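Quick sanity check, Ceramide synthase 5:
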Amino acid sequence: MARVGSLVLLVHDASDFLLEAAKMANYAKYQRLCDFLFIFFSVVFFITRLVIFPIWVLNSTMFESWAIVGPYPSWWLFNILLLLLQVLHIFWSYLISRIAVKAIMRGKVRVVSKFSSDSFKLSQSKNCFVCFGCGSLQSRHFSLLFF
């Protein structure tokens, strides 16, 4: 039970740097690299937080520790908080999968190319950009959502 915090940290840090790398690629306007890193991040996120965390970490803290030391007052609080963390992992996985599906189905280039050339030039002149994640076209003058 003493090393569970290190395992939780390791599981969470396994995918975090990939998301940061995808953000940097997006800011640098390397869209293909950004898409690849985001998909790779999604796969690592799902494996670490929906497979490794519940099978290894939760299993050892809930069932193996019960057999070794038995329940004690802080055991209940500790495991309830870890289960709450797993609920958050499921919710975050849902949100990430929605973003990944939108990115695969539409893609940043295809959303912008639906406009006519005049409106595209207008959007370029007003310093517009497509939001990475929600798919909205934004500028300082207007905001248009794509659903």
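Posting the structure with no commentary besides this: Residues 4-105 form one domain.
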